[in-house]
Every structure is written in C-alpha cells, then in structure tokens.
Prior knowledge:
Oligomer: single chain
Helix content: 25-40%
Amino acid sequence: xxxxxxxxxxxxxxxxxxxxxxxxxxxxxxxxxxxxxxxxxxxxxxxxxxxxxxxxxxxxxxxxxxxxxxxxxxxxxxxxxxxxxxxxxxxxxxxxxxxxxxxxxxxxxxxxxxxxxxxxxxxxxxxxxxxxxxxxxxxxxxxxxxxxxxxxxxxxxxxxxxxxxxxxxxxxxxxxxxxxxxxxxxxxxxxxxxxxxxxxxxxxxxxxxxxxxxxxxxxxxxxxxxxxxxxxxxxxxxxxxxxxxxxxxxxxxxxxxxxxxxxxxxxxxxxxxxxxxxxxxxxxxxxxxxxxxxxxxxxxxxxxxxxxxxxxxxxxxxxxxxxxxxxxxxxxxxxxxxxxxxxxx
Length: 345
C-alpha cells in the first residue's frame, strides 16, 4: 500500500500561560470499538510521517468525550474516539470549559452483533426477543409484570431452550447507547411494553424510553465495563452465554464465535452498507480545534485517517472490518477546512 504523504512544518506554540512548549505527541482516548482502527492509523502515521506515533487509549466513548471537554491545554487530550454521536450535553460541557470549536469526523460504519460459542446453539433474534429476555418489566395480558423468563425458549418458542445469560456493554460505552435505542427500545415497542410505560408516565415518551431501558438485575443481563476482549473471555468461560460485539471484532474472531441474525438479516459489511441490517451505527472521532496548530502533526493525522488510503474501500480499515462511508469525500473536505460542528438538531 502506498500513501500520498505531505509533510509540513507545524508551528509549536504554548497552550497555556507559562508553557515553554507543547507536547509533541497526539493524545487520543475513547471508544473501544474505534480503538483498533485508531491504533492502525496511528501506527501507520508514525511509520510514514515525520511525527511521533500518537498515543491511543480506550476507556469508552462517554469517558473520551468527557476528557475532551475538560479544557484546552497540553494536559488534555486532542481527540475523543466515539462509537455513538456526541450529545448536546457534551458540547455544552466543552463550552463551559473553554472548548468552543469541535470537529466531528465520521470515519465509517459498524454493526452491533450478537454472538455465541461457535460450537453452541444457533440463534435468530429480533429486538423483541432481547427485550423480553433481559428487561426488568415485560408486558403480559395488558399489564407490566416482573420478568421471570429463564431461557430463550421462554421468550420465543422458536429459540433454543438455553439459559438466558447476556453480556452487554456497560453504560459508559457508545455501543450501549446504540444497543439501548435500536434493540431494547425497539423491542419494548414491539412487545407493547412501551405503550404501557407511556400510559404509566402520563404520555411522556422520554420517560417511557427510560423505563424500557431498565434491565434485569438478577444475573441474566451482565454489564461488561471492559472492551470486547473481556466479553470474549467471559463467553469462553461460559459457552451458554450470548455476547454483544462490534462487527469487526466478531469478524476477527470467527474461529471462536458464531453470529446470530437480527430480524432475519445476517450482519455483514454488505448488509450494513445497504442499511438492511437493523443494528448498525456510524463511528466518529471528535477533534479539539484549538490544538490543531499547536500539537505537531494533529491536522496531518486527521487528514491521513480519513484519506482514501486508510478509510477507503481498499484501505486497511476496511480490511479490518470498517464499513466505508459512502460520503467520505465530504468528510475529507470538512477536515481540510477544519469545519467545526454546530449545535445538534
């Protein structure tokens, strides 16, 4: 693979009063889903540019965005990776701490998949199955009752008679936000529980969705605060469990995992790119514009990340499992122009 490399001299200035110079290494933190992609780009950047290899860490999308918004200065990060879109509350927090210009950079798409031991039962899920399996309250005979289902067969007669044990991303992960919205709330609506919650809350749809997302605390649903490797380790210890992963992670572990369909659709690069697979999401990173002309190589790194060589259909990110963004050229233009994002609609 060849890279079109443009090396420039970056002016290094003080980030805070009294600083003699800024650090010379880009600092990145956030999403465990975006982490492997950012690591691939960082290593290639260090090999092909006359700048130090960026430091890339995980910690979760929410934690990354929070760190980005702590302020401006060499003791704060430059980029937050995120597998869910930034919230207006994040933008407001940034502004209150002097971070007034943020770039939103969409790098491509990924799917959320439901995988289990490669030698175990096969599953064909719907969002209603997942809601009925792990929600705290379910609809029964027009009423909301405590969830007492013990096996997947209890919630859907077409599913195997296998104990319910789901390892799902913890609440600090961007994957959890998408899982809650596109699986749990969707399933809540499909089963009729949402309407009962809405009635119970006096017609408040926001409150109803919040109640939909209240999950079991009896061990059937287990939050995993670490990354996908921790979820994989838990499945290795209990072959009856189902884990929630990103598509790319699953594709790199097909010797250990089998994937379930969702709504009758097999998750793949093709079904996600077409929009056919129902549980997909865009992946982002967020840039602190105030650091662009201060941290050496930051602008070059961003441009390199979204270049055709890296994020295009024939680049290494696609080889790893990223679904290329059909509007990548627009992102490249916005990055070149350093376009900050405005308030969310």
